Every structure is written in C-alpha cells, then in structure tokens.
Fold this protein.
Amino acid sequence: MVNASQKTIQEEVSVQGIGLHTGRKCRITFKPAPANAGITFIRTDIPGQHPIKAIVENVQDVVRGTTIGAGDTRVYTIEHTLSALFGLGIDNCVIELDDNEPPVGDGSSKLFVEALRNAGIKDLNLPKKYFSVIQPVEYSSNQSLIRLEPGEGFQIDIEVNYTHPIIKDQRITFKDGDDYAALVSPARTYCFDFEIEALKKQGLAKGGSLDNAIVVGHSGIYNDNGGLRFKDEFVRHKLLDLMGDLMLLGQFLKGKLIAKRCGHGHNIKFLKLLRAQAESIPATPQTF
C-alpha cells in the first residue's frame, strides 16, 4: 500500500441489513469520489444534511463502537465500514445511509469487502496521502498502549490480554502485502455473556444475536454455527476495529504501529495525539 496511488470505486454499490446497536434497518450505498475527497458519510433520511467527513475531529462517542456526527446528526458504529476501506486501500468514497447505523452483517467487515470488490476498485493516478513520524509517538493509559514508530512501510503489531479461560493472550502482526480480505475481514465482533444485560440496559446491542457476534461464556462459546473462524479471531477483530479507526486520521499511516489492549476510546485518543504531533513536532516522545 505504501507509495501507491489514491483509489475509489468504479461504480456505486449497496447492501442492507440491521444495525448492531440500534437494531434498525439500514441501506448503505458506497459511491465513487474524486481524488483528495476523502471519506464522507451522508444521512439520506434527513433532508438537507451536509456530508460528515470521516475524520477524528467529528467523533462524538466511543461506547462499544465509533460514532461520528455533525450538529445533531449521528452515524453510529462506523468502524467496520471504514476498516473495509482501509483494508482495500480505498481513500475516497461517499457513503450514503438511509438510517443511523450501517448494517452489522455477520459482525465482521466481510459484507463490505465483498460489496466494494463487486463495485470494482479504481486507481485515481494521484499519490496517496500518508501520515508519518520522525520519532516515536506513544499513548498509554493503565495497561493500554499504542505506539507509532518511524518506518517507510506499514505494519501493525497488536495484542489482547484477558484472564478469561477461553481467550487469554492473543497477538497478531499485519503488514504491507498481507491479505486483509482473507486474514482480517472475516473476524467477528464479540462480547462476554455477562455483558449482555448491561448492554441492553444502555440501549445497545438491540440488533445483536449469535448470527452477528461471538458470545463467550466462562466454559465455552455459545455460537453453534461452526465455532470460531480463526483460533485467534478475537485479536483479529481488534485489528479490524483498529484499522477502521485509523481511517479517521484522513491519511494512511507509514511506520510500525504497536497496540496492546486497545479499544475505540484509546484509538481515538491516540489519533488526536498524532494530530497534535502533526501541528507541533515534539522534542521527545509523548506519553499520557
């Protein structure tokens, strides 16, 4: 991906389904966009709405997903959609929705990857925009850490650490040239069984089911549709989510990214730190 050209899609394509948290039906349509346009979301169910740029400054919430918005308008749980664009190297796209949350599909980004591939990917013959650093930038909070080290290529080294008997410690590395569609996009979102009641009380996971999420119990996994797709599916989904959040930088990254016990809140704080780095290069690595 590094030193490649900007890309969009050849033609518009739509998919539909229910949202993970809202449980509302939504049709999402991806449309081509010109070079340097970036990624924008448009709520077609609200007349006269302006596009919402997919940038970190527009993030409104990070509770069990990444929400962006402008004014009173919101688009919830955008990370799987953006992750598919990241994985396919698509810089420019208009995303229209007729409700407030993209379809969850099977809980992964596979639905979007297949749709975008069917639409065709178009080279725009202009260089990609990259964000890079000349020295490490590090964010840490309690046991979570995200660190970007200088480099000409791109690599993510990510790990999760649980005391749970089913998940425990998992780690994976993804780098330039790896097959996102095969290695990352099928990994599904997950939760623990003891979290479900609390999520419902918060008005979340209204569309969640065993068809679109892995539910983990103390002694096993509730899903009976073939079990896990990968033995380390949990860390692969964390990688999927992180890639989606990284799209909110508005540029693809160069360098080695190390992430430990990350989540949407930490991801967004790290991106804001990178933004600050771009505006004022620090003399030493910043650690929070």
User: Anything to note?
Assistant: Residues 281-288 have pLDDT under 50 and may be disordered. The radius of gyration is 18 Å.
